[in-house]
Amino acid sequence: MERHPGLGPGEEVNRGPVATPRVAASVIVVRDGERGLELLLVQRTPAARFMGGVWVFPGGSVDRADYAADDPDGLHFALRAAAVREVAEEAGIRLDGADELALFSRWITPAHLATRFDTWFFVAPAPWGAEPRVDGEECVAVQWTTAAQALAAHAAGQLPLVFPTIKHLERLRPFGSVAELVEHAHASVVEPVEPRVVTIGDEPHVLLPGDPGYDDAGRRA
Questions:
Q1: pLDDT at 213
Q2: What is the CATH number of the domain that holds 144?
Q3: 15 belongs to a structural domain
Q4: pLDDT digits over 78-98, tens only?
Q5: Predicted confidence (pLDDT) per residue in 139-154, tens digit
Q6: Mapping DSSP to helix (H, G, I), strand (E, B) and coil, where does residue 168 land?
Q7: Diameter of the chain by CA atoms?
Q8: DSSP conformational letter for 98
Q9: Which of 66, 83, 85, 159 sits most deeply, having the most CB atoms within 10 A of its CB?
Q10: Whether pLDDT at 201 is above 70
Q11: CA 165 – CA 57 distance, rounded (Å)
Q12: Is 62 part of a structural domain of the chain?
């Protein structure tokens, strides 16, 4: 059995009924740099109870105001509106528009956890000359990095990351340019990924679809 890392800061196992996940949008902002494909990470404030101090892609929950007034059930419109808003709020970057977003993945928090999200991840090219900045409250730092450098820094204990971010960085590592990544995203069919948490010994571990024991964990849940 492949053993993935356990829970992140503030993630609590749910002892009651399964919580309904909140719909959210997250954006992998990318640019072509001297080091190859670079992506934007922001650091959540260490004071946050949930995911405090970790580095993530900009993102947040979809609000009712994100839906179009004449199309209250238009989830895809709302997701893109939330994505554009969150990048502006958390990273100080105003994307050229929702049309710049390419759907990359969809992750649903395991049913075992108390705080759950149904997060749609988008890829978006950074506007030319964009300089990210943070508000110092919700997010306290920002950086451009390659996927390989971020993963190496995490392995060295220098960059706190959570499981979904790690798995996305692993997927992003082979891409060499913005054009290559965006083309891949447009051509891909996105299937939702819902990890499952199992306890091995006294430690929680995460199983992904295809991992040995994943289906058994679903039946036990």
A1: 83
A2: 3.90.79.10
A3: no
A4: 999 999 999 999 999 999 888
A5: 999 999 999 999 999 9
A6: helix
A7: 52
A8: G
A9: 83
A10: yes
A11: 8
A12: yes
What are the residues facing 33 on neighbouring strands? 36
Taking 80 as the threshold, does the pLDDT of residue 192 lie above it? Answer: yes
Beta-strand relationship, 22-33 and 117-125: parallel
Asked if residue 210 belongs to a domain, the reply is no
Highest mean pLDDT among 18-22, 147-151, 217-221: 147-151
Q: Which of 44, 75, 77, 48 is nearest to 59 (CA)?
A: 44
Q: What is the token pair recorded at 45?
A: 């404030």
C-alpha to C-alpha distance for 176 and 119, rounded to whole angstroms: 25
The answer to whether the beta carbons of residues 46 and 60 sit under 8 Å apart is no
CA of residue 98 relative to chain centroid, distance: 18
Q: What helix, strand, coil percent values describe the chain, rounded to 5? A: 25, 30, 45
Q: Decide if 55 contacts 159 (C-beta within 8 A).
A: yes
When pLDDT is averaged across residues 171-188 and rounded to a whole number, the result is 97
Number of structural domains in the chain = 1
> Residue 201 domain-assigned?
no
Give yes or no for a contact between 62 and 74, defined as CB atoms under 8 angstroms apart. no
Burial class of residue 64 in the structure, from the number of CB atoms within 10 Å of its CB (0-12 exposed, 13-18 middle, 19+ buried): exposed
Residues in the chain, overall count? 221
Cα atoms in the 13 Å half-sphere on the side-chain side of 36: 11
Residue 197 amino acid letter: V
